[in-house]
Amino acid sequence: MRLVGYMFSQTFRSIWRNKGSSFLSALTTGFALFLLGISFLVSVNLGFMYQMAETQMEIQAYMDKEATWTQLAGAVSQIREIPGVSEVKYVSKEDALEELREMFKDKASVLDSLEEDNPLPPNVRIKTVGAEHIPDVVEALQSLDIVDDVMYQEEVSRRLVQIGKAVQYLSLGGMLVVGLVSVMVIANSIRLAIDARRQEIGIMKLVGATDGFVLMPFLLEGVLLGLLGSVIGTGFAMGGYNWVSVKIAEFIPFMPIVGLDQESIWNMFGIMALTGVMVGLTGSAFSVRRHLRV
Amino acid sequence: MISLRNVSKVYNGNVKALDRVSLNIDKGEFVFIVGTSGAGKSTLIKMIYREETPSSGQVFVLGKDLSKMRRREVPYLRRRIGVVFQDFKLLEDKNAWENVAFALEVTGTPKREVNRRVTQVLNLVGLLDRRDAFPNELSGGEQQRIAIARALVRNPDILLADEPSGNLDPKTAMEIFNTLERANIYGTTVVVATHAHDIVDSLRKRVVELRGGTLVRDERRGAYNH
After folding, report:
1. How far is CA A69 from the centre of its chain?
2. Which of A139, A211, B77, B100 has the fewest CB atoms within 10 Å, i.e. is most exposed?
């Protein structure tokens, strides 16, 4: 217990002694984590848009006009069984006409002539669990005899899948690059800390301090710098995000922006803190191995 | 207590610091290692606290074969050996008391025990009244006595000193050796590498002489020169 207290006090003293480099490495880590936070927020928003688009995205299967009620009912239950299908809605010829009437409210009279001999086919509207299921579902629908034609927003769904993947790869790549930079900056800061205490370390080893005891404060220092960086990064990311959301709301009012609630802030901070700790630990472990031949 | 068997140490492939040295030192002995600079005195001292390992031969200290000792066992060996250097190696930002206490703190000794032992050992070296002074406020002789106090605070089995009076005037040097002798009287085995002719001659302890890495003399109650 006394050893632990001693190590913590050593760590804080060391951070304080090298205020400049400690602050710099926390700031750099903060910046790296800020980028991580931004990509996190961007993917949250894209995910949100993706979801919105997905819920609005449906496949329309036009049925054989001559199909009987029983055949149609059978087809609907068959469609429900297709993997990836989340919602199936049957729209009869009459409903379809009603919808059309709604759409052309003011010119509804032109539709009156259709009342006698409704040319609209009954159709089934299908939603999928995710955009990636659309091609498979479409294929399954086309193989049904009763289905005349299938319409869906193929281009939109493909684009959404692509954008989603691109953002994921991009944020992952960006995170790796900035993460690497922070590891190096922290490693440098720890190296300075080690240099500043070289004589002390020599004496510690001379009087029989264990390797773990000698190197632990430096690992701890790296972890603390990483944590400090995550606080800075979260602050910047939140500030930046709020600023950007205000600007977007001003200039592109129809663009949906996810508001930051307590939970997503904590989620973001959690991810950042974890990453910060890992970055700090990696950086300090690197320096300790290299410069503290214990 | 300390036993070297045919110990050789070669640096950089050709510089022989020690050449087949065999030496036994018993518990409670006081031994001078003498010889010119580069004779291998420091290397021999370093072998004992395992700062160096032999290129060939064996070193036994406190019943352990140091060449077979694992790295994580070394700290526990060092807790039983005190070491003193020519340049004192005190921490400038700690006062006398803290410098001595440091040796106990880094091994997790309880506070009360630290207080008791530091008081005791500062008393032994006669510097309890200078406990709050920082190294730059102490004379060379006082700094070395603090360093000795740090080496002794754990009540070690062995006290090693490498040129402990190298930076000190003759009168102060004598004080230092008196302090080492006092530690020896309390039962600690003392091994001192030194150039101090007068002191070696006046104290008449066991003298081991090295020349070019070879042990050339081992004499009871010897003098610096033959």
Report:
1. 45
2. A139
